[in-house]
Design goal:
Layout lengths: L9 H14 L12 H8 L3 H13 L3 E4 L3 E4 L16 H19 L7 H8 L26 H15 L6 H17 L8 H11 L15 H4 L2 H6 L4 H12 L6 H19 L3 H15 L11 H12 L4 H12 L5 H14 L4 H10 L4 H16 L6 H10 L5 H10 L6
Antiparallel strand pairs: 1-2
Helix pairs in contact: 1-3, 2-3, 4-12, 4-17, 4-18, 4-20, 6-7, 6-20, 11-12, 11-13, 12-13, 12-16, 12-18, 13-14, 14-15, 14-16, 15-16, 16-17, 16-18, 17-18
Length: about 425
């Protein structure tokens, strides 16, 4: 693969231009920047791209944003201070996304496939922390507290393929690694294997099927559950991000519903990593979900973007236990993308700046709750970073999963943001 000199991304070029204007005094200290619409028109980009550029300037202490008023040039010598518990660097936020995915997955390991009522009876309304799998669990029996499942392990595989390919996904390599992973899981006696869409696609591929069409029936949440690395490696510019999601998902989940759900999760992670807040991350997710719904083979099903918006409104103002009950009853917590992805967004919206609580809510909702907690944890972790998780929980995760190098993966994935595609 040929390499060219890194090309600045759109939001990086915009932030550099505005930084030069601030340094030259054309934007004086205390001056208000033009609004998002005006900047988008000036640079010929989307408002999401403008927000990413403003986030970079904010992180650099050059501007400050006042809610309801706009962005203003900082007085010299008065850099912005990070809010308590927030991630101060893009590296922190990238690591936070991977930690959130793994912690949510491990929290949901013992509760997956159980009903909300079964979870409440066993652990109370909210899972307190990592628990071992209960005896006789149909998938996770014998697993220790803090161990991750297929959600994290498949995300790691995708991250490794991305890094190895310099930002490009080789579908043959991804397929081979997934097949080898399942074989290893079987050899270890695990029942936590590939999901139905992935299994069908890889069986088709091994039987000589065309890798461009093997994922044409994949409409479950397997693509969304492992897509976090694409969000870390790709800037929150809708067209480029959705194209990257499609490339990473095509071999197993090349349908409109699966790509809409995976695009939503990847966009929220990407927006968080670049420093955007919760509302901007939701906007990016909705735009990406709508764009993703026009990719792949169309399959019948509810619109993912509309269901995300509806699910967030459904739980607004509710107490956590009531929200969990309602999410299971009305939103749904099955493998279906149009259920589990909106469920993850709804639970994240309850406490957008508290990824540990978000992960515990996801693990307490029932159904495919390891995947729901993993997606919600990744999105929340990207906003807050490692500081959003108790140190002892991080230590337990690392102890229970030796060899899980999330820091190395975060560094490798971030480096891909400046690689010319």
């Amino acid at each position: 693969m040929s390499r060219t000199a890194p090309v600045p991304l759109k939001h990086e070029r915009i932030s550099a231009t505005l930084a030069e204007e601030i340094a030259a005094g054309r934007l004086a200290p205390g001056a208000q920047l033009p609004g998002e619409v005006a900047l988008a028109r000036r640079f010929g980009v989307s408002r999401t791209t403008v927000r990413a550029a403003l986030a970079e300037l904010t992180q650099g202490g050059l501007i400050a944003t006042r809610t309801g008023k706009g962005s203003f040039v900082q007085l010299r010598g008065s850099p912005r201070r990070a809010a308590p518990g927030s991630a101060s660097t893009i590296g922190d936020r990238a690591l936070g996304a991977l930690l959130g995915l793994a912690i949510g997955d491990a929290l949901g390991m013992p509760t997956q496939l159980q009903s909300r009522q079964q979870i409440v009876d066993a652990y109370g309304p909210l899972l307190p922390g990592f628990e071992p799998a209960p005896a006789g669990h149909p998938i996770a029996a014998g697993m220790a507290a803090g161990q991750v499942t297929d959600d994290t392990e498949q995300a790691v595989i995708l991250a490794q393929v991305l890094i190895h390919g310099g930002g490009l996904v080789d579908p043959q390599e991804l397929a081979a690694r997934l097949v080898a992973w399942e074989a290893d899981m079987r050899a270890r006696g695990s029942l936590d294997l590939l999901g139905p869409s992935t299994r069908r696609a890889l069986a088709d591929l091994l039987a000589g099927g065309d890798i461009e069409t093997t994922g044409s029936n994949g409409d479950t949440n397997g693509a969304a559950m492992r897509i976090t690395p694409v969000g870390i490696a790709t800037a929150p510019e809708t067209a480029a991000l959705v194209a990257a999601v499609e490339a990473a998902s095509r071999v197993t989940h090349n349908t409109s519903i699966a790509l809409a759900g995976a695009s939503a999760v990847a966009a929220a992670v990407s927006a968080g990593v670049v420093g955007l807040g919760f509302e901007a991350a939701i906007d990016a997710a909705l735009s990406a979900a709508s764009a993703g719904a026009h990719r792949g083979r169309w399959v019948a099903g509810a619109d993912v973007a509309s269901r995300i918006r509806w699910a967030i409104g459904l739980v607004a103002g509710l107490a956590d236990p009531d929200a969990c009950d309602l999410v299971q009853r009305l939103v749904g917590t099955s493998l279906a993308t149009q259920e589990s992805v909106p469920a993850a967004f709804a639970l994240w919206s309850l406490h957008p700046d508290d990824p540990w609580l978000t992960c515990r809510l996801g693990a307490s909702v029932g159904g495919d709750c390891d995947t729901i907690a993993a997606m919600a944890g990744a999105m929340s972790g990207a906003l807050v970073g490692p500081a959003g998780f108790p140190a002892d929980a991080v230590a337990q995760l690392e102890s229970a999963n030796p060899g899980l190098d999330l820091t190395g993966l975060a560094t490798g994935l971030l480096a891909l943001r400046t690689v010319a595609r």
